[in-house]
Design goal:
The structure holds 2 protein chains of 2 kinds. Chain A is mainly alpha-helical. Chain A contains 11 helices and no strands. In chain A, helix 4 runs antiparallel to helix 5 and helix 8 runs antiparallel to helix 9. Helices cover 36% and strands 23% of the residues of chain B. Classes of the chains: A mainly alpha, B alpha/beta.
Chain lengths: 272, 257
Amino acid sequence: MTARPVAAPRLGPRRRRRVVRGVQYVVLIAVVVTLALRADWAAIQQSFFNPAVAREGLPELFTVALANTIVYTVTGYALGFALGLPLALMRLSSVPPYRWIARGYVEVFRGLPALVIFLLIGTGLPIAFPGFALPGGVYGSVALALALVSAAYMAETFRAGLQAVPKGQLEAARSLGMPQSRAMISIVIPQAVRIVIPPLTNELVLLFKDSSLVFILGVTASQVELAKFGNDLASSTANPTPIIMAGATYLLITIPLGYLARRLEARQGKGR
Amino acid sequence: MSEATTSPGGAGHAVEIRALHKSFGDHKVLKGIDFTVEPGQVVCVIGPSGSGKSTLLRCVNLLEEPTSGQVFVDGVELTHPDVDIDAARRRIGMVFQQFNLFPHLTALRNVTIAQERVLKRGRREAERIARDLLDRVGLGERGDAYPAQLSGGQQQRVAIARALAMDPALMLFDEPTSALDPELVGDVLAVMRKLAEDGMTMLVVTHEMGFAREVADRVVFMDDGVIVEDGPPEQVIGSPRRDRTRTFLRRVLHPEG
């Protein structure tokens, strides 16, 4: 507030705040009212919230689509975990080639869209290794693709977690005569895993959504996951309601998981 | 001290250090340390911060790799390239300024884990030993507590029990009471005093002049990476010969003046 000459009578700061807030409300209400008046509510209800169409998708929405989505996500996540932790350890290795490999992996797979990785698995793998089939068929391919994506992110998360364990922990373990590997397994890694639980929960949410890319690999009706299920049903019924249903089902999982991640994070912040 | 350097393998001494140098980059922290600790002796290392006393202690179990020189513990040369450092460290207990208890394990588990994983003792035997040791440091009831549930003084006593569980021949203490609230220092020092009375060989970096005077067989005063004075406490603390020692002691004992 510099003292500059004002022609009109100045508003006090509190009055001015009130006016600004009032304008914001007016704009908001204007937008909402305009949209509400212009929208065709009957058509919206008919297309997006159509109970007859919705009934057609039940119970397969949950018993097939959601179940498959969970299977894809969990296997991809478990495999990504199993790949990401060694990558993180390699990233921190004292042997330079290990560091380079891990670094290269993380850079490449974090830099690629998940869609491209799915395409490579779907079309590239059979060309590169003819006759080779992943165990579990489509399930194996999906697990591999999701694992390749998530391992890169998890490796970085694990690395941060490992580096967050105070150096004194390793020193104390080594002072007790534990070899480096034993000290890592018994002392450092368990603490690092605790530190990375919240970010890893977020990674689970991301992977859950990325599982929608499974359609690239060409799945049968029994292998279908949420997004494809919604899309297919929307095509066959000529009504987008199933897409809304699929979206709502994603939120049913992702919102509580995100909430859980934030809770874990908050609790950890308090504990330390 | 000079005769000792002629002996082949530091035999007879609990600790023998010869011509020890340690640099961090261009910074020379230890500039030629020679000294010995005899079995059963309690040696306190005092000196201003940055004098290299903690680095010296950390060189004794090779947490810091010496730049040059030799370290013998119990006749074993730790600086020898073929040494099994893990086996050697089992015989050397270490107590840290920041305790470094394992926060994800209970007090009891802190004391048993290395017994089981390193000494291959059975769970039951390890727990019996751990309970005895926790009793000895006055925490027999707190075995199920996690470190975060214990006071600093209690944590440090668990850390001492953890080190003792390996049956060490030598205990290293790196400013064990410096991170403690003043009212908690006494319990830790009492445990250390009892340990000294039981005949444990101890090398203690400390600022506790009272403890050094009463418990130590020898006091070593370090400054600027060298040992300035080494002798019985009544001499080094009581009537120091060197100016540097006198200046340091005046500051520590009479901080107001």
